[in-house]
Amino acid sequence: MRYIPHTPDEIKQMLSTIGVDSVDKLFNGIPEPLKMKEQIPIPGPIHEKELLELMEEMGNQNINLAEGKNFIGAGSYYHYIPTAISALISRGEFLTSYTPYQPEVSQGTLQAIFEFQTLMCELTGMEVANASNYDLSTACAESVLMAERVNKKQKVLVGRSVHPHYREVLRTYFKNLPTEIIEIPFSKNGGIDTDFIKDNLDDSVSAVLLQSPNYFGVIEDLKPIGDIIDSKPALFIVATAESMAYSVLTTPGDVGADIAIAEGMSFGLGTNYGGPYLGIFATKQKYIRSMPGRLVGETVDKDNEKGYVLTFATREQHIRREKATSNICTNQSLCALMGSIYLSLLGPNGLEKLSLLNMHRLQHLQKLIQTRKSSAIKFNGPKFNETVIELSLPAKDAVIYMLKDKIFSGVDLSTHYPELDRHLLVCTTEMLSGLDIEVYAERISKFL
User: Fold this and answer.
1) What is the predicted pLDDT for the residue at 168?
2) Residues in contact with 357: Cβ distance below 8 Å, sequence separation at least 6, in sequence order
3) pLDDT tens for each residue of 322-365
């Protein structure tokens, strides 16, 4: 959208039309003490060359992940992005597309979304997937809302080992709703407390939401939990922050999940200052009419040629608000396209090899840490590409110390888990070499 400033005469005419004699009068509702009396100190105009140099200078104040060694994960994973992705999504028909309301002129976009849905069903082992949510945090909230639509209950059990940011978003969604959110503690091995689920799962529970691998990197044993939940009205929601793990772990569909949600940023999106990301949302066929978002379906036209259309679109802008299954309206198809291209480039075998490489990198790190202090790995449950290291000093001190060598050492867990004030959440991906991991182990040993 172009910005066209108003001339003084145009401003005067508009103010006259609404019966106001100055722009300041439009802000009478703001108390005087809150208004700035002086001009904002913005420098005057400069020419293009100086502007670009200024922006570059400001940008250089940021720390670029490519300039250091990144061991931070926690829902934002640093993976290699094939150059083909940026080339393909930069095509005008993809980059500028919005909701494909007119299928006759949107077949390419619709097919891309349909292929994404198919890929997500294959990854999750579920029967149907939508055309994405904002990210996993919103998918968590939308999945609980969906469960309440299905079984008309308003109590949810949520693992405390679910990403704390996702739980914050969940609480924000339900702040003014009667839904009761009960957090499930984690056990000594970092996995979920199954006994707590057994003791608190009754017919009043709408959903049980667990993350695997969980926030601490531990892979949950979900099949027995799925069997327990199956005997109750509650829906079983399985969340995955590192969706790359799908290629080597048992799928949510195979452990009895009713809803599978995930963060798809690992599939070619990059860290991007925390977004935009890609919320994956899949479920069983029988719940399709309660699922948020939209679905693209494959059909044939009057000439029996294959075509694609919006099959379900139950957002508030499509139907009556009180009947809508979601009021998230922003189109995520560009992010979904990036994920589809990434998965198509790697293929099933390539994705599995990459996932195993991530796992092997973590195993290498854990062995090096344990040779220096056998008890330094906090949780002994199985892991994918993240682990928790127990330190003898505050984790924030280790983060500052390692940053001097441009090593982004991990996430200080004390912010969200006060009882883990000397613990660091560490991640390894294919972007780290064996030597990088050895250097890290040597540096962090100062704090073990």
Assistant:
1) 98
2) 430
3) 666 776 655 578 899 999 999 999 999 999 999 999 999 999 99
* 447 CB-side CA count, 13 A: 22
pLDDT greater than 50 at residue 1:
no
pTM of the model: 0.89
Please give the structure tokens belonging to residue 366: 């854990």
Asked whether 73 and 427 are in contact (CB, 8 A), the reply is: yes
> Domain-by-domain residue ranges, the chain?
65-80+348-447, 83-342
Quickly list DSSP for 297-364.
EEEE-TTS-EEEEEEEE-BTTTS-GGG-SB------HHHHHHHHHHHHHHHHHHHHHHHHHHHHHHHH
Architecture per CATH, domain 83-342, reads as: 3-Layer(aba) Sandwich (3.40)
Rounded mean pLDDT of the chain? 92
Residues 65-80+348-447: name the CATH superfamily. Aspartate Aminotransferase, domain 1 (3.90.1150.10)
- Do 116 and 132 contact (CB within 8 A), yes or no? yes
Strands 235-240 and 259-263: parallel
Position 316 scores a pLDDT of 55
- Within 10 angstroms of residue 139's Cβ, the number of other Cβ atoms is 32
Q: What are phi and psi of 423, to 5 degrees?
A: -130, 140
